[in-house]
Amino acid sequence: MDYVLIWAGLMAFAVFAYVVLDGFDLGIGLLFPFIKQPDDKSNAMNSIAPFWDGNETWLVLGGGGLYATFPLAFAIIMPALYAPLIVMLLALIFRGVAFEFRWRAETKAGIKRWDLGFTLGSFFAAFSQGVALGALVQGIQVTERTYVGGWWDWLTPFSLVTGFAVVIGYALLGATWLIYKTEGLLQRFCQHTAWKLTWALGVMIATVSIWMLFKQDPYMKRWFDYPNYLYLLPVPVLVAVLGTYLLRALNKGYELAPFLSVIALFALSYFGLCISFYPNIVPPNISIWQAASPDSSLKFLLVGASILIPVIIAYTAYSYWVFRGKVNSEDQYH
């Protein structure tokens, strides 16, 4: 049994779960300035109130799991991406504080200040995640298993574009979540906004996908060498099909289908990214087997994960089931 491959799959799942689950509530923060009515703002927040802090469990699991199971990757990635990751963590903290304090503000001016904090925290958390992803995709300078790059290697035109791509993707997730959870004026606003964001995300997916092929030779070979392109052709085709279906679902006024379609788009994009990386965990030349802990450690950790991960999944599913259905202005977080 290849424990390294199992743990690589579990870490990939944890990262994807975080991106989807925390992505839509970050997206609501990004949309917040454009929601005009106070009741609609309250409804938007109420739609994520039972879930937002639990969603970040997957971030803790992914970070802690990376440290325990792929310590070499952790030791290389952290110094290479200190700046965007620190900004992300500070933004998540500030966003959480704004979320809680908004409900205790006693004046309209106070509410507006915390609303701004909620939006800025959401933006910088989403943008820094995208920048970190772009910096990882373009490659990290490693010599003798040690990061040898500079403080600002993460800051490039490509990483800035991936930062904005993630912002747009999260905003689309947030808009489609609100289509599913709300009614009336707010739902119509989100349908209109989601239409625009779908086109914007399509442009970003195409731009980043083509650009990244020229960042590392293995990426180009993986996608265009024979017979690879025969197996991988369905990925971009399915992205185009899903994007078309998403636009149709928005036109038809479907409520749940747009949200599920965006998740599927994220899944396909993430799958394409994993294909490009494999077998490396730190591009261009640190593989999952080179970065992994000994098999004895991975086996021991797998015992705990086999208990912990199903519990987290069950709790998450139960919370979404309990708080299913539409939200309204009478619902209150506190």
How would you sum up this structure in a few lines?
This protein is mostly helical and 334 residues long.
What features would you highlight for this structure?
4 strands; two-stranded antiparallel ribbon; mainly alpha; 334 residues; single chain; two-stranded antiparallel sheet; globular; 15 helices
Average the pLDDT over all residues and give the rounded result: 89
Main beta sheet: strand number and arrangement? 2 strands, antiparallel
- Helix-strand sequence: HHHHHHHEEHHHHHHEEHH
Percent of residues in helices comes to over 70%
Can you tell me about this structure?
The protein is mainly α. It has helices at 3-31, 38-48, 52-55, 57-69, 71-80, 82-102, 108-138, 157-181, 184-213, 217-224, 228-232, 234-252, 257-277, 288-291, 295-322, and strands at residues 142-143, 146-147, 280-282, 286-287. It has one domain (3-322). It is built from 15 helices and 4 strands. It has a two-stranded antiparallel sheet. Strands 3-4 form a two-stranded antiparallel ribbon. Helix 8 runs antiparallel to helix 13, helix 9 packs antiparallel against helix 12 and helix 12 (234-252) packs antiparallel against helix 13 (257-277).
Question: Would you spell out the secondary-structure blueprint of this structure?
Answer:
Elements (H helix, E strand, L loop, with lengths): L2 H29 L6 H11 L3 H4 L1 H13 L1 H10 L1 H21 L5 H31 L3 E2 L2 E2 L9 H25 L2 H30 L3 H8 L3 H5 L1 H19 L4 H21 L2 E3 L3 E2 H4 L3 H28 L12
